[in-house]
From TrEMBL:
Pfam families on file: HisKA (PF00512)
UniProt cross-references to InterPro entries, sorted A to Z: HisK_dim/P_dom, HisK_dim/P_sf
CDD domains assigned to the protein according to its UniProt record, in alphabetical order: HisKA
Ranges for domain Signal transduction histidine kinase dimerisation/phosphoacceptor: 28-88
Signal peptide: none
Record-linked Gene3D superfamilies: 1.10.287.130
Protein name as it appears in the record: histidine kinase
Record-linked SMART domains: HisKA
GO terms of molecular function: phosphorelay sensor kinase activity
Source organism, top-level taxon: Bacteria
């Protein structure tokens, strides 16, 4: 498809009734996902750092093992947040 064809198709799409409302709704959805990701990552990073500190200063193997599990779960949650953002429309 040539760039000119693509521009004509985009112009027709944008001129349709409701296209502007749809674009605004998508933009709002994307902003909401970004805010949610930010709000989830902040406490996760704090928990991750505290778990790392706990693991380094653990007085027993059990405490170190539990701290390691906490770190693993935080990293998995961060990965889920990343995947949610990747699947969000631009």
């Amino acid at each position: 498809m040539s760039p000119g064809s693509l521009r004509r198709i985009q112009a027709r799409w944008r001129s349709r009734p409701g296209a502007q409302a749809l674009a605004e709704a998508r933009a709002e959805h994307h902003r909401t996902l970004r805010k949610l990701a930010h709000d989830l990552r902040n406490p996760l990073n704090s928990i991750l750092l505290m778990a790392q500190l706990l693991e380094e200063t653990a007085g027993s193997p059990d405490v170190a093992r539990i701290a390691g599990r906490i770190q693993k779960q935080c990293l998995e949650m961060n990965g889920m947040v990343d995947k949610a953002l990747e699947s969000a429309p631009e």
